[in-house]
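Example record

The entry below shows one chain as it appears in the dataset: sequence first, then structure tokens.
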Amino acid sequence: MTKKGLCSLLVAAFLIVSVFSVFPLKVFAASSVRIGHASISENNSAEGAKGDQTGKEVFTRDWYKDSSKPWVYVIRAKDPVVAEKIAVAMEQACANDKIGYGQSDRTTLFTEAKKKNWKISAITTKCNTDCSALVAVCVNAAGIEVSKTMTTANEKNTLMNTGCFILFESSEYTGKDENLKRGDIILRPKTSTVGGHTVVVLSNGKNTSSGGNNGVQYYPSCSASFTSIVDALNSIGVNSSYSHRSTIASANNITNYSGTASQNTTMLNLLKQGRLINPDANTSTVYFPACASHYTSIVDALNSIGANSSFNYRKTIAAKNNISNYSGTAAQNTQMLVLLKQGKLIKP
């Protein structure tokens, strides 16, 4: 290299160092956890045309942490089937380019989703939503009725008042992705000084024990050629009687099943996609949600997930988990606590 070339290289290096000392790069830790949310319109503002114009109005991305605007709550469905339905609804919304971002017409998605019996992938009319209105749609799609006007300011109370959710406020949940579970709802309420936002978790953190579908099991998909739900169920060896189809329909949020063509088509489409929940496979062992790893008391740990921590109930839990002759000893409580931290404490 010539002396002139070396001088040019040194000058360039000096300029780069100078620029980054004034404008430092922000480095974000990689996350293996995915989330889905309504983000911003095509105009990089709160308002935009109906439908997703950019592919980034309603979309999935890695979980993130913003120290200037931290997450405040993680809200988890008590029933893993509900959590799975929330996650599926969010995935369908993020994959449907008919759904865009707009605050003044934020409830138009809710209207369209209700028309389609909460099957978000079936929406073909352009509409808009925002972050909290989208979460409201996902929760309704999971069979829990909440208002279409829910906002981040009242979302926590709206969801908790249903009695179907557990609230986590510890930084073990709000500040890390390790303890998140698919179907969790993360919330930062809007205040006078901080803008609100809410998202749905689409994959599990490394400390959660369930599989990718919250332990929910689906029937294997049938051939795409079937036009009859009866024939399709028979093809995979499943009882296709009316009474069993009623049970399947209920598990899949197909309400008031009477065997109509529309209901059977909805069920058939889910089966073809491998997304028809198997109610018979989801009635066996149920586990308490994992508690945070810092707990040293089984009583405090149970309280943190909204479970009854009384001695009598702990005795019932112990018996279900093969901890015999429970009397509340330190060893017994530690055994129970370890299982709870692992998400492996069986719920009676």
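Notes for this example: The radius of gyration is 24 Å. Strands lie at 34-38, 58-62, 73-77, 99-101, 127-129, 165-168, 185-188, 197-201.
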